[in-house]
Write a structure and sequence with these properties.
The chain is α/β, with parallel strands linked by helices. It folds into 2 domains: 288 residues, Spore Coat Polysaccharide Biosynthesis Protein SpsA, Chain A, CATH 3.90.550.10; 123 residues, no CATH class. The relative contact order is 0.11.
């Protein structure tokens, strides 16, 4: 399949009519949704207010790309748009304002929703595009300014979000995705899977040219895929400080193993795609930050370190035969000793954790075992590292937490040559021992 030839394939006939009517646009803001009737009205109002206040001269288009909601989400988007236009005097904007709510085609998932948004942005020849989550309760009109102005002014092709989060929130990002992405690609994008982004027309064109839209990227992994694709193609990167991100809580019954498989698996797959690039990166550098850094309240995250330690210990007892396929004996012995520790003395060191992630990356690359089984076996180790993190930071303030994350990132960078050695052993068909 030629992805260039497929541009527009995910759009419905009424969308083509809408595009013909609008003609062109300066800004496209996309809101992917699925049964978000309770929150999407607030998100639409914030987008409208942001466009009216910060981009009055620009022709703006709001696109709700819906995954087949049954709770009236698209209808709420239409009603909110009509009410908001009169309240915000949007008809008097010199640029003009349009909106459309439409189901997307393709595999169910956020990536397919993004594809439809990107295709509309491209067909409208938009200068800038942004996407924001539909379940946001903390979005303000200023988010639009921060995500879009660096693009409008030609200062960035890709704007990632920066949120203030509770020290026990986002631990997959803090312990794996951020430090690994930073070590691999050399840019300090603090929240590479944040969910709310800004893009230039160049970035939109790049994403649509990639032949991934009928793969798992379309179901999950779209955020890390976009960030990594932008980094590896050397687009101009930036971050926007958006304060706190408060949104609907995730399903507590969701399987953590599935989440790790999706997020970490996507990251490892991208390592294979861009192996020729990341192996040559030797250090990391900051990226421009837009927005005033201010303190905000964050939602507390309840944790039970003792329960997490038990899950880690149970995993050590049950997964030894899997781990011995790709983890060295010294590390296995250390994990066995740690499994006998109690809460007061439990500590999974950062150095050990980085080694574990790098061994897993090499095992993924060399296909030691089924990849889904491989990454699901990471779950108790991740839980053990998270328990150790909770105990280590119990007295830490936000600045102290960031300092510890920074030290972890430096370990990922310092051990990168170790990763390359393990990775190349896997390439040669041997185990990473």
């Amino acid at each position: 399949m030629n992805p260039e030839r497929e541009v527009g394939a995910a759009l419905r006939s009424e969308v083509h009519e809408f595009i013909d009517k609008v003609g062109s646009a300066d800004i496209v803001v996309g809101i992917p949704s699925y049964n978000n009737a309770r929150t999407i009205g607030h998100v639409v109002r914030a987008v409208q207010a942001g466009l009216a206040k910060y981009f009055p001269e620009c022709k703006g288009v709001l696109v709700n790309s819906d995954g087949g909601s049954t709770d009236g989400t698209p209808q709420i988007v239409r009603e909110t748009r009509e009410k908001g236009a009169s309240r915000l005097f949007l008809p008097h904007r010199s640029g003009g304002y349009f909106s459309i709510a439409t189901p997307y085609h393709g595999l169910p998932g956020k990536g397919s929703a993004f594809r439809a948004i990107f295709e509309i942005a491209r067909k409208l020849n938009a200068r800038a595009c942004a996407v924001v989550d539909s379940d946001l309760r903390s979005i303000t009109p200023e988010w639009l300014e921060l995500l879009l102005k660096p693009v409008i002014h030609g200062e960035a092709d890709y704007v990632a979000p920066l949120y203030l989060r509770h020290k026990y929130d986002g631990t997959i990002t803090n312990s794996i995705v951020y430090p690994l992405t930073r070590a691999l690609y050399g840019k300090r994008i603090r929240q590479p899977i944040g969910g709310d982004f800004g893009f230039s027309g160049t970035a939109v064109g790049l994403f649509l040219s990639e032949d991934v839209w009928e793969t798992d990227v379309a179901r999950y992994g779209i955020d890390i895929w976009m960030t990594t694709t932008a980094l590896a193609n050397k687009l101009k990167m930036a971050q926007a400080y958006l304060g706190s991100k408060i949104h609907d809580p995730k399903d507590p019954s969701a399987d953590l193993s599935d989440m790790l498989y999706q997020v970490v698996g996507s990251t490892f797959s991208l390592m294979e795609r861009y192996e020729g690039y990341w192996k040559s990166v030797t250090a990391s550098s900051p990226v421009p930050l837009y927005g005033f850094m201010y303190e905000v309240g964050v939602e507390p995250v309840a944790v039970d370190a003792e329960r997490m330690i038990k899950r880690f210990s149970d995993g050590v007892k049950s997964l030894g035969e899997v781990w011995e396929l790709f983890l060295p004996q010294l590390l296995l012995d250390a994990l066995s000793r740690l499994a006998r520790e109690h809460k007061g003395s439990f500590h999974l060191p950062a150095e050990m954790w980085v080694d574990i992630i790098y061994y897993y990356a090499a095992a993924w690359h060399s296909n030691v075992i089924n990849r889904e089984h491989l990454l699901k076996s990471l779950t108790p180790l991740y839980i053990g590292r998270t328990a150790s993190w909770v105990l280590e930071t119990v007295e830490s303030d936000p600045a102290g937490v960031e300092n510890k994350i920074e030290r972890l990132c430096m370990l990922y960078e310092e051990k990168k040559q170790f990763l390359i050695e393990q990775w190349e052993r896997g390439t040669n068909g041997s185990t990473p021992h």
